[in-house]
Design brief:
This protein is an all-alpha fold. Helices cover 70% and strands 2% of the residues. It has a two-stranded parallel sheet with strand order 1-2. The protein starts with a helix and ends with a helix. The mean pLDDT is 90.
Length: 213
């Protein structure tokens, strides 16, 4: 089993800013309701939950081979919680064809990248602090998964403005409620931000050197 701390470290490498970034919320397009997405989560078919189904194959079926290559969570495909969290998200995406499209569609602009990012958010971030099986049985945990899926798909829940949606997710964020994991996560984010700034500084220095030469 991959430690939650390691999965969270990978997530911080995946995104420049997390769910508390107000700029991201202001950029969201109107999407389906939390209830509609949560309903899809609660109705995930048994084959998607079957541990014998390999995550890379399932991801390729739903996202296509090119889309699947953008999933960071495939690095931990052998981890039960990562596999299950990703599989539930993949079912919500696949359900458009099997059940009927959500209105508005779940994924906004640049669908290939948005789908992969949303699946990684569930598999690496949420599943690190909340057992994906709880998303099926517990209303609050299912709402958290639905709101997370909407956010990282680039969608604002129907009937909510950015400030409301942001505060609603923050109130039920299982990672924030787990003090030990949250402290480790904050440290990972700090290190990732320092690494990004160093990389940007080196790139600027290299560009300046090139122009001088």
């Amino acid at each position: 089993m991959v430690e939650p701390d390691e999965r969270l470290a990978r997530w911080t490498q995946r995104v420049a800013a997390d769910a508390d970034d107000p700029v991201r919320w202001e950029q969201l397009a109107p999407g389906p309701s939390v209830a509609a997405v949560a309903s899809r989560i609660s109705s995930v078919p048994r084959p998607f939950l079957d541990e014998r189904v390999q995550l890379p194959a399932l991801a390729a079926d739903v996202l296509g081979r090119t889309g699947a290559t953008q999933l960071s969570c495939l690095e931990y495909a052998g981890d039960a919680e990562v596999r299950l969290g990703a599989a539930i998200g993949l079912w919500v995406l696949a359900s458009d064809e099997l059940v009927g499209p959500l209105e508005p569609p779940l994924v906004a602009a640049n669908p290939e990248a948005a789908r992969a990012l949303a699946i990684d958010a569930l598999a690496l971030r949420v599943a690190s602090a909340s057992d994906p099986l709880d998303w099926l049985a517990d209303d609050t945990r299912r709402e958290e998964a639905a709101r997370t899926l909407l956010l990282w798909s680039g969608r604002l829940p129907a009937g909510e403005d950015a400030e409301t949606a942001r505060s609603m997710l923050a109130a039920i964020d299982s990672l924030a409620q787990n003090r030990a994991l949250n402290e480790a996560y904050a440290e990972h984010r700090h290190r990732a931000e320092v690494a990004r700034r160093l990389a940007e500084a080196r790139a600027k220095e290299a560009a300046a050197r090139y122009t001088r030469e």
